[in-house]
């Protein structure tokens, strides 16, 4: 009676994990949970731990799928990090804008174009990642995204020269410089490949 | 070199990973036996979600490997790479412990 109940509960908890994970670890995980139930039938912290880890595993898989990335490809981090940092920079800049800022969001057509270019860079990278072989991926992407960032910086400089200097613009400009440096490996070279082995398919340090 | 980069990659899970690898250093074990072993030598209970998250990661890093078994409870064992990484990690922890204890010895009265 107890065993059936424990088995049902273990099965229910395991269902919080993605199907691929369950296929590999499901059976042994259920057996493990059943043993834990026998020793201590009720534990809120254990239930929470299993549910949260299951949801976290789902979220991790979903994130990679949304980014259109095949896990396991080295040096993808920059392609993701750059647009994400720019987007965060935009959001931060917007949040920090003064009440008397002359250009509330969207600040101008230029900013709209800049944002569109960053988005284009991301989509271009995503497409390249899906369609081009691993060996060829990064020479082209590197040029495209660096170009976008350069253009992006140039437009913001122009915007400043014209006279609309706000904290917002300086923040974005600074971000651009940092991104440019990252893109060309002047900073952050050490961390330019994905090494998270928890991502399915990644086998440690992969050379492109 | 590879071992060093793997141990650097433990990140915030370093504690759990060290406990799991240390337990497997004593021989292959399935999850539940490992949890009991860790409880015995470290006084820490590793929750099931945390344990299997670590198993999945360590298996992909090739620090541990599953052993074929007819039992539902599949045992895991430490690989040669896992042993090297664990040794590096424990040496690093010993260095920190030695420094801490030495400094405590100078001027701090401890119970």
Topology:
The complex is a heterodimer of chains A (208) and B (111).
Chain A: H1 2-14, H2 19-39, H3 44-66, H4 77-96, H5 109-131, H6 137-162, H7 167-183
Chain B: H1 2-8, H2 14-25, H3 31-42, H4 48-60, E1 64-66, E2 76-78, H5 80-105
Antiparallel strand pairs in B: 1-2
Helix pairs in contact in B: 1-5, 2-3, 2-5
Q: Gyration radius of chain A, to the nearest Å?
A: 23 Å
The shape of chain B, in one word, is: elongated
Strand content of chain A: under 5%
- Going by CATH, what is the homologous superfamily of chain B? Winged helix-like DNA-binding domain superfamily/Winged helix DNA-binding domain
Shape of chain A: elongated
**What fraction, in percent, of the residue positions of chain B are helical?**
55-70%
Number of domains of chain A: 2
The biggest sheet of chain B amounts to: 2 strands, antiparallel
Instruction: Calculate the mean pLDDT score of chain A and round it.
Output: 64
Write up what this structure looks like.
The complex is a heterodimer of chains A (208) and B (111). Helix content of chain A is 69%, strand content 0%. Chain A is mainly α and 208 residues long. Chain A has two domains: 2-66, no CATH class; 77-191. Chain B has 111 residues and is mainly α. Chain B has one domain: Orthogonal Bundle (Arc Repressor Mutant, subunit A). Chain B is 63% helix and 5% strand. Chain B is built from five helices and two strands. A two-stranded antiparallel ribbon of chain B has the order 1-2. The longest helix of chain B has 26 residues, at 80-105. Chain B is elongated and about 55 Å long. The mean pLDDT of chain B is 87. The interface between A and B is medium-sized, with 31 and 25 residues.
């Amino acid at each position: 009676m107890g065993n059936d109940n424990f088995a049902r509960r273990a099965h229910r908890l395991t269902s919080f994990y993605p199907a691929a994970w369950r296929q590999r670890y499901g059976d042994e995980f259920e057996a493990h949970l059943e043993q834990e139930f026998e020793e201590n039938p009720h534990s809120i912290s254990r239930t929470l731990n299993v549910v949260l880890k299951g949801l976290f595993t789902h979220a991790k898989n979903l994130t990679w799928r949304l980014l259109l990335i095949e896990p396991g490809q080295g040096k993808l981090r920059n392609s993701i990090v750059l647009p994400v940092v720019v987007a965060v920079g935009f959001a931060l800049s917007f949040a920090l804008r003064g009440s008397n800022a002359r250009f509330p969001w969207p600040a101008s057509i230029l900013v709209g174009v800049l944002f569109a270019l960053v988005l284009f860079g991301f989509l271009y990278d995503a497409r390249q990642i899906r369609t081009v072989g691993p060996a060829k991926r990064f020479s082209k992407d590197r040029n495209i995204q660096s170009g976008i960032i350069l253009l992006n910086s140039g437009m913001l400089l122009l915007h400043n020269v014209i006279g609309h200097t706000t904290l917002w613009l300086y923040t974005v400009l600074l971000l651009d410089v940092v991104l440019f440096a990252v893109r060309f490996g002047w900073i952050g070279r050490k961390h330019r490949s994905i090494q998270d082995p928890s991502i399915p398919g990644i086998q440690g340090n992969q050379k492109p | 070199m590879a071992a060093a980069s793997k141990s650097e990659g433990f990140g915030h899970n370093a504690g759990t990973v060290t406990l799991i690898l240390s337990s497997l250093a004593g021989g292959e074990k399935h999850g539940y036996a490992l949890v009991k072993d860790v409880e015995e030598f470290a006084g820490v209970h590793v929750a099931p979600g945390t344990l299997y998250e670590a198993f999945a990661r360590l298996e992909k890093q090739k620090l541990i490997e599953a052993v074929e078994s007819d039992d539902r409870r599949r045992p895991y064992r430490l690989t040669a790479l896992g042993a090297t990484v664990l040794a590096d990690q424990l040496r690093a922890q010993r260095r920190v412990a030695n420094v801490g204890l030495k400094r405590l010895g100078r001027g701090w009265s401890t119970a």
